[in-house]
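ENTRY TYPE: paired fold submission
RECORD: A
CONTENT: sequence, then structure tokens
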Amino acid sequence: MTTRGPRTWGHAADLIDILDVRPAGDRRYVSTARADERRPVVEGSQMLGQAIVAAGRCAPGRRAVSAQMVFARAADAALPLVFELDELCSGKTFTALTVSVSQGERRCAAGALLLDATASDVIRHAADPPTVPGPHESQPYDMAVSGREVRVVDGAYTDDPHAAVGPPVIDAWVRFDEVTDDPCIHAGLLAQFTGHMSIAAALRPHAGIGQAEAHRTLSTAVNAIAISFHAAVRADRWMLYHHRSTFAGDGMTHSECSVHDEQGGLLASFYVDAMVRRFYGGAAEMDERTAL
């Protein structure tokens, strides 16, 4: 979670608690809440991670292989989220679900998930990982969550609008110190980080513009994420997130990304659509705590 200032948001155990949604009726799940008064807005990728956990609870023994979510409204991090699942179909191997995320009468996000019992290989190939330094040769970055290590290749992730320009690519290694053995939580943790760096990758080639302007003079937000899981996830081992922005324009950015394990295996692929726009009416009218 990107925050302004050095104070710790919480421990990885707090993040896991938020992702670990609780049953509250037939295919209905509720989250706990934890807010930072400096920026009490729920990240879209958190809702995606929570939906993946809820789907796993709804279809035990099956692994999420595909999930897409559109984030329609900002959600208040101080309030619980309600996840309502609808089963489209469930057969011998696949379960298809839709999900609606709400707070009170406000519908904040919606999506669809596909879960699979998985099968033995008929064919197999996977994209190669990027050729980058390993986690211990990369620069630590404090995202205010203790118990989670983030290391950025070449220090490419920065809020500074005056940083040197570079290609629209950011590679980051991520690992959690301790995670329960629940595979749904591991997949949810992988998904939760997918919304963190794609906008920064899109800004990187453009001089004089950076994430320090976000929610002040720039309106930025992740609008949609689609993720495919290709293998079981261990979030307590190093995961390499490769963010590559393939387009920026018309107030939108698009990134095509992947997640590899430390041995180079492809864990997941994901796409992020986000907005980068100037505020209308001037920054003085904006509350950076809640503005998108």
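RECORD: B
CONTENT: sequence, then structure tokens
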Amino acid sequence: MTPTDAQIKDWMNKQPQAFRDTPTVRARKIGLWVLLIGLFAWCLYDFNFSPERIWVGLQRLGTVVSFMFPPHLWETWPEWVEVFTALGETVAMAFLGTVLGLIIAFPVSFLGAKNITRIFFLRHTARRGYDIIRAFETLILALIFIRAFGLGPLAGILAIAVSEIGTFGKLFSEALENTSKRPVEGVVASGGSRFQSILYGIMPQVLPVHLSIILYNFESNVRSSTILGIVGAGGIGFMLSDRIAGLFWDQVWTIIFLIIAMVYIVDYLSGLIRTRVIGKWEGAH
């Protein structure tokens, strides 16, 4: 018989000691809190975090922000074309990197799913491969590819593509593993082959999940491609870095505003696609 909340409360009032942590558990909790607080305080000290430094920094930041207003508006069409071309280059970089990573990661993800790949060594190798690739930050990959291929969007595209292979591979394989076995058993029971069981039993379950992952990562890559441009991978980030170096703070603010607008538009369109396409797919199944 399960005790009621009233009974538990009554027992706690009568025997409060029985419901408290033991001295050992309390000592562990106190020790953990002391360790975390001490580590936090040491980091603040080691990084020279002081109220005076924060106050001086905020004053300098206020000076920089004051230089951004009023925002700069370019007066000639060729200047606006340069800005819009950079914005388009940033979106194209994210799109191509996402697609290239997807093309490679989609077939590779089947190797990491235990309900599809029964060979432990092959599956384990694929999963560790995803982890190794994801260990490299996109920015580091961009710096490496810039050194190899030179400045420009190609380095950014390759950096995003390589990073997405690890991310897509891991997420896709996990989605494959979390599918229901009943549709697969139905296909096999009707005489279907192993390939047909995957095609008709598993894929209809994971395609909406895959599409949602792809759209989300594309949104993230649009933001990442802006940062990659700052280190030399082209796009609007490169223009932003150039204006910061030249202390053209009014143009910097305008470019930042355009980046925010670009990200908002991409997120909005991605949300529409996710709602309509995935909604229709789930409704049909």
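NOTES ON RECORD B: The mean pLDDT is 86. The CA atoms of residues 56 and 62 lie 10 Å apart.
STATUS: closed
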